[in-house]
């Protein structure tokens, strides 16, 4: 995902290949934000999956896990971005060193993530790719569907998560403006 983003963003690869401050800040952003968000969100989803597929799990547990997975991932994605942005303001002087500014840019940034307009879009789609096997497995265990339908179900959940993130971020941005 990251290589795709760099390749699709005009001039970005050339800027990074020059090294120096742009490359250092890019790597800092990926390491301090991206890897943490992707790891924690996917870990939580996998933990929920493991809980739902334990030996004594019922079909109700499987359904509960599937319906909890999306809000869990979405909530963690938003919360981690906000927390990391605030910490970045403190630790690195990002956002002019202002925690308030850091929080203020979370919603607009995440609102554009689904459109792959910023690096948070890379993190969103990395999280969605990590969720697909979980959603495929849970979906097939809950609703025995033909082989072609399970990936379609997982894809619909992924589109739903991207859409929900966009809607929530736009709503938060609207509340911030009020």
Overview of the molecule:
The chain has one domain (2-6, 35-177). Helices cover 82% and strands 0% of the residues. The protein has seven helices and no strands. Helix 3 (20-52) packs antiparallel against helix 4 (59-92) and helix 6 crosses helix 7 (149-177).
Short description:
The chain is mostly helical. Helices cover 82% and strands 0% of the residues.
- Largest sheet: number of strands, sense, barrel closure: none
Secondary-structure class: mainly alpha
Uncertain residue segments: none
Relative helix content: over 70%
- Radius of gyration over C-alpha positions, nearest whole angstrom: 18 Å
Number of domains: 1
Count of strand segments: 0
Q: Label the overall shape.
A: globular
Beta-strand level of the residues, as a percent range?
under 5%
Arithmetic mean pLDDT = 90
H/E topology pattern: HHHHHHH
Query: What is the terminal separation in angstroms?
Result: 35 Å
